[in-house]
Design brief:
mainly alpha; 45% helix; 5% strand; elongated; disordered C terminus
Length: 168
């Protein structure tokens, strides 16, 4: 007999299948990321379709995606029944947009790190990582130029390494 998405697994079976500890499963349940039911003997059981949610949580953790982001994405999924293909497609499109934005931010950071820190000059006029005289204090805490990449920056001269070299 083939297992269906609505079949139930004990907490032991879920921990065995996923490698996730029982305490982590309890935590994810308290956060609303997964759900379980109780048997007449008060044993916690999970619908088989929760395995996919748990797998996605594990992938998100590996990618350092906050659980709050996972919860936001999972909010678009039914929790009391197995999500349909259409449900997963909708969630997938939403998550893809978030991942594309994350990739864009990482690529921008990589450019700054390899372009400026990599050359060692840390130009006081062009480096987006520096904040001479704390001129950006009103824009918030931390590296605001990197955290808000779309915000306009003060006028800077070109980075010395971006200018054409005479021998080029």
């Amino acid at each position: 007999m083939r297992a269906g998405p609505e079949d139930h697994l004990t907490i032991g079976e879920v921990t065995h299948r996923t490698g996730v500890s029982a305490s982590a499963l309890h935590f994810y349940e308290r956060k609303g990321l997964i759900s379980s039911e109780r048997t007449g003997g008060n044993q916690r059981i999970f619908s088989r379709h929760m395995l996919r949610r748990i797998s996605l949580i594990m992938v998100a953790k590996r990618l350092h995606i906050p659980l709050s982001d996972v919860a936001e994405v999972f909010a678009g999924l039914p929790i009391g029944r197995a999500p349909t293909h259409k449900d997963w497609q909708r969630v997938s499109r939403r998550w893809k947009k978030q991942l594309e934005e994350r990739r864009r931010v990482l690529e921008s950071l990589e450019h700054e790190l390899t372009g400026c820190i990599g050359c060692g000059c840390l130009s006081m006029k062009a480096c987006l990582l520096l904040n001479p005289d704390d001129t950006l204090q009103d824009r918030g805490p931390g590296p605001v130029r990197l955290q808000q990449p779309s915000a306009p920056l003060p006028e800077t001269s070109p980075h010395p390494h971006d200018e054409p070299r005479p021998d080029a």
